[in-house]
Amino acid sequence: MNKQVEKRIEQLREQIRDHDYKYFVLNEQAISDQEYDKLVKELEKLENENPDLITSDSPTQRVGKDITKQFKPVQHNVPMLSLANTYNEGELYDFDRRVRETLPREEKIQYVVEFKIDGASVSLRYVNGILKTAATRGDGTVGEEVTNNVKTIKSVPLQIKRNSSAPYPPDDFEVRGEIFMRIADFHKLNKDREEKGEKLFANPRNFAAGTLKMQDPQIVASRKLNIFVYNLISSEGELNFHFENLNLLRKLGFNVNPEFKLCESIDEVLKYCNELESKRNSLEYEVDGAVIKVNSLRQQKILGSIAKSPRWAVAFKFKAKQAITKLNKITWQVGRIGTITPVAELEPVFLAGSTISRATLHNYDEILRKDIRENDKVVIEKGGDVIPKVVSVVLSERPKNSKVPRPPDKCPVCGSSVFKPENEVAFYCENTECNAQVRGRIGHFAARGAMDIEGLGEALIDLFVNLGFLKTYADIYDLKDHRDELINIERLGEKSVGNLLAAVEASKKQPFAKVLFALGIRYVGAGAAKKLADHFLSIDKLIQASEEEITDVHEIGPSISKSVRKFFSDKHNIDIIKRLKKQRLVFEAERKVVKENFFTNKTFVITGTLENFSREEAGDRITVLGGKVTSSVSSKTDFLVAGENAGSKLEKAKNLGVKILSEKQFLNELNKAG
Which of 131, 200, 317, 600 fits as disulfide partner to 289, beta carbons 3.0 to 4.6 Å? Predict the structure, then answer.
C-alpha cells in the first residue's frame, strides 16, 4: 500500500511540475484551473497522511509558513559582476576591437545578444537537480539568502526536468537570472492599492527587489513574480558555449527569454540590438537594453574581468523613453546639507514602468538654460531609465503671459535666508537646524548602503522629527528609551516598535566604512568613505589628519579633503561622534593580513590612461594586496604605474629616480601576487 501511495505522490508531483512549466514558462494552459487545483489538493492530502514522504522539491513546499527574521550572507563562488554600458554604435565597435586585440589573431569570435531585463538579479544553486539556495546579488561578492521567497515563484523549478536530449544534468550547478514582474500585473497591483488608499509602488523593478526581502513567503507568493535566467555556471561537465548553455537551460525546465541570437560579427550584433529596441514597447516586461556576450567560454576566460565588470560582455543601452506632460508648478526642496533644488510638479504620466508626477530640474541655471516655466508642456525622460528629468519645453504650446521663474529668496521649509557660494550653481539654506536638513541627514544615515536600519523610512523619520524624538541621527540610538511612548503611537504598536529597535541595534555591527559614509560628509560617497576607512583605519586618525594627508589618499581630491576637514572642525559633529562611540558603533577597521608580496608596504602613484583598468580599479587592486596608493609623486614613492599619455608625474618620477612600471609589468606583478 505504501509503495502505491509513494508512486501516486510522485505521479502527482510530476504532473503538477509539468503543468507549472507549461503555464508559467511556455505560457500554455493544458488543463483548467479547477483540474489543476484538484491535483494539488490530492497531493496535499496524501502528503499530510504520509508526512515522511514530503520532500523539499515537492510543489506543496513552494510556500513556507516560517517567517524569515534574518537573510543570511551567501558568498558567490563566481562574483556577480555588473556590466559596462555602451550607448552608441561607436562604443559597441570599441568593445569588439578590445575583444579582438586581447584574443589571439586567428580566433573566430561569435557573440550572443539577449534582452537586458530590468529586474532584480539572483543566483540559484542546484544540487542533484534540486534547488538548494537562492541568493541576491548583494555587492557582487556576497549576497543574501532568499531561498524561501524564490521558491514561491512558479517559473523557478524546484527540481530540474530530466531531459534525455540534454547533454547532462550537472550534480552541482548555478543558474543566474533576473526576477521581474509583468507590467500588467504591476498596474493591477497599484490600481488595487489606490482603491484601498494605500501608497503606490514606484516601478516593477524596485517592487520585485523589495518583495525578495520580505519576511513572509506567503505575501511573496501572492505577488506574481517571474524570472528569466541567463547564465549557467558549473565546475562539473563540459561547458563550451554560452549559446548552448541557454538552450540547455530551456531543456532543464528554466524560463529563458526567447529573444536571444547567435551573431557572427559585430555588424550583425548591432543590427539585432536595433531589432530588439524596436520591440521594446510591445513587451509585457521592462527592459533597458541588450546584453552582448562572447559566446566561447574559453575565450571568456582569456578575456577575464576587471574589478567591476567582465571584459567579455557589455550592455547596449536603449534610448531613454520619453513622454510629454504639463508642468503645473515649480517647487523647491531642501536636502541634507541645505542644498535647495527645484522640482517640476507634473501632470501624472506613465513612463518606463512607473507613473511620474515629479521630475528634477537640477538647479536654477538649468531652468534658465532650458527656458522652463510653469504651465509649460514639457518632454520628460528617465535618465538611465531611473531618474525622471525634464528634457525640453514644447514652445509651440506655451501659454501667453507665462513668466520666467525666480530663484528662492528664503528657505521654503524654515524661512531662513539663503546663499549662493561663488563658483557654484546651487542655493543653500543657512540654517543647519532646518527640519528638512535634519530629516535628510537622518534618512541618509539610516539608508541601505549606510547603517541599513530596516523600517526607519521617510514616513517614520518625519513622524519622529515632528514629535521631537529625533534631532540628530545620534538620537536614533536613544529611541529604545522611548519604547512605551512609541508603542502608543497610532499605526505602530508593540511588534512594529520591537522590529524597529532590533534593526537599530543590529546596525551597530555595520563596518567603519559604512559608518563613515552614513555621517553624511559632503562629497564623501560610499567609495570615498571606503578609501578613507581603509587608509586611516580609525575615525580618530582621520579626525587628526591634515588636509594634505587626506588629499594624499588615492582618488581623494581637494574638494573631499576640504569637506572632511570642515566637518571634523565642527564641535557639534564631534559631539555626535562621541555619542555614537558610546553606543558602540564601529569606528575602526582592521588592516587585512595579506601574504607578503611585491606590493606589500610599497607606495604607488598611478598616472595616464590604463587599458585594462580605470585608475581607481588599479588602486583598489594595489590596496587589497597591502600596498598604498597616493596621488602625488615624492621621494617616498616606490613605483609609478604609467599608462598612455602619462604627463608631468612621469617626468617628476624620472627626475626623482622613482621606478616606472608599464601597464604590462604592473599586470605581471598582479598575476604573481594572486
Answer: 317
